[in-house]
């Protein structure tokens, strides 16, 4: 299917380009003594992009993030914050912005997102030309024609668009969808299973094509950031899937499992570690799971070899945050043995990072095997820390409830120490 590509002209006044006063300040980690740069204060309910996707713009100066209430409309919108000056700029101001699906280009200063109409079908894939937007915002002279291009409109066939990934060559987007609307999900409950699928979208022409369908719910979808034409997606259950990670080619061929799971493996939070490897968590938060290897793992997509980057000590977990976790998957008592929960990675094979159930973020030197506590006390509420490395591997971006005692999140930068300082 080919969708017409149009430039969007705002019908009314827009807050795209609106600037917010810097909230940036530096604090010292009480446990590690390391400086932390607070980019957003927690006055608004801000969140970083999920760790599976790029955080920084091509020029390395801006971090793209999302907020549920910072906009004057009090609706979810996308923003950028300048890591040097602290300036914050709003970059979307539309109804139905899916802020959980932001994709930041690495070959151009563009951002992509999906926008859902009120009825939830026929979503639009939208491109933002970020360079001129930020230049005009600084001058205070926003152009009437806006800065967005509708790349494609998804078919109005009853399917509901979910997340998407931008191919390494940025010529194609891969968009996941449910074949029908999901039933309601109770807080903390497992995810209802709905048949799903993946569409490819040609960024230049807007042509869409279904390349894969599944009988179960697709969760996180990501394109290989270094090798065009390869997609990883997961079977999302809200708990422990029989086989979570899957890989498929961009044309729909070669669909296959990644890391074939055993009956006692609990796999989650996968992302590409480089062109040929995936990093993921083999959970160890129960006594049963700790009776076998667990921790942060790296698996080769080419020959299946496994590298275990280690696990936290189950005897030192404080369980200080457990009472705030509303999930059928997380024990609320002494049987919870904690461990790594999410991960981050640099594509050069040097660093990995992992947050744990106590709100700490650990740094792992993959070249030496040494593990170091990078920063502590980030509360893991109202969401988890989700560490992500800067493209040059010198900084870790996380979201933290530390500044507001878990009421809202702040975006925080933790510098990666020099090898000689560890």
Characterize this entry briefly:
The protein is an all-beta fold and 422 residues long. It is built from one helix and 31 strands.
Helix and strand layout, with pairings?
Blueprint: E1 6-7, E2 19-20, E3 25-28, E4 35-38, E5 46-48, E6 62-67, E7 77-82, E8 88-90, E9 97-104, E10 110-115, E11 124-129, H1 130-139, E12 148-153, E13 160-166, E14 172-178, E15 196-202, E16 208-214, E17 218-223, E18 230-235, E19 245-249, E20 256-257, E21 267-272, E22 277-282, E23 295-300, E24 306-308, E25 340-345, E26 351-356, E27 361-365, E28 371-375, E29 388-389, E30 395-400, E31 410-415
Antiparallel strand pairs: 1-12, 2-8, 3-4, 4-31, 5-6, 6-7, 7-8, 9-10, 10-11, 11-12, 13-14, 14-15, 15-16, 17-18, 18-19, 19-20, 21-22, 22-23, 23-24, 25-26, 26-27, 27-28, 29-30, 30-31
Rounded average pLDDT: 94
Residue share in helices? under 10%
Total strand segments: 31
The N- to C-terminal Cα distance equals 54 Å
**SS class:** mainly beta
Shape: globular
* Count of helical regions: 1
Radius of gyration: 21 Å
Question: Main β-sheet: number of strands, strand sense, barrel status?
Answer: 5 strands, antiparallel
Low-confidence stretches: 2-7
- Could you give the order of strands across the largest sheet? 1-12-11-10-9
């Amino acid at each position: 299917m080919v969708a017409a590509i149009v430039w969007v002209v705002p019908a009314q006044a827009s807050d795209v380009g609106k600037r917010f006063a810097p909230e940036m300040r530096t604090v010292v980690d009480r446990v590690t003594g390391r400086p932390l740069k607070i980019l957003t204060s927690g006055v608004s309910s801000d969140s970083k992009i999920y760790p599976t996707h790029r955080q920084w713009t091509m020029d390395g100066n801006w971090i793209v993030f999302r907020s549920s209430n910072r906009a004057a409309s009090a609706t979810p919108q996308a923003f950028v914050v300048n890591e040097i000056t602290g300036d914050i700029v709003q970059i979307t101001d539309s109804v139905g912005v899916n802020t959980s699906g932001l994709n930041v280009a690495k070959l151009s200063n563009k951002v992509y997102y999906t926008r859902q109409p009120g009825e939830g079908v026929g979503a639009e894939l939208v491109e933002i030309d970020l360079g001129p937007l930020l230049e005009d915002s600084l001058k205070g002279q926003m152009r009437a024609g806006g800065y967005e291009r509708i790349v494609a409109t998804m078919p109005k066939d009853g399917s509901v668009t979910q997340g998407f990934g931008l191919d390494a060559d940025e010529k194609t987007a891969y968009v996941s969808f449910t074949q029908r609307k999901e039933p309601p999900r109770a807080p903390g409950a497992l995810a209802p299973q709905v048949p799903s699928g993946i569409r490819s979208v040609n960024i230049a022409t807007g042509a869409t094509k279904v390349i894969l369908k599944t009988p179960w719910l697709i969760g996180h979808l990501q394109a290989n950031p270094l090798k065009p034409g390869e997609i990883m997606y997961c079977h999302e259950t809200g708990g422990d899937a029989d086989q979570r990670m899957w890989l498929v080619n961009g044309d729909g061929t070669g669909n296959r499992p990644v890391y074939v799971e055993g009956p006692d493996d609990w796999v989650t939070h996968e992302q590409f570690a480089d062109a040929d490897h995936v990093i993921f968590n083999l959970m160890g938060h129960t006594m049963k799971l700790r009776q076998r290897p667990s921790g942060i793992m790296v698996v080769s997509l080419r020959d299946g070899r496994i590298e275990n980057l280690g696990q936290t000590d189950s005897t030192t977990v404080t369980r200080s945050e457990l009472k705030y976790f509303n999930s059928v998957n997380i024990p609320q008592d002494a049987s919870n043995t904690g461990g790594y929960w999410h991960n981050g990675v640099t594509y050069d094979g040097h660093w990995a990072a992992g947050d744990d159930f106590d709100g700490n973020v650990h740094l792992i030197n993959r070249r030496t095997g040494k593990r170091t506590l990078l920063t502590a006390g980030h509360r893991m509420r109202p969401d988890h820390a989700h560490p992500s490395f800067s493209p040059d591997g010198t900084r870790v971006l996380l979201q933290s409830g530390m500044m507001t005692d878990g009421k809202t999140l702040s975006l925080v930068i933790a510098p990666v120490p020099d090898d000689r300082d560890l």
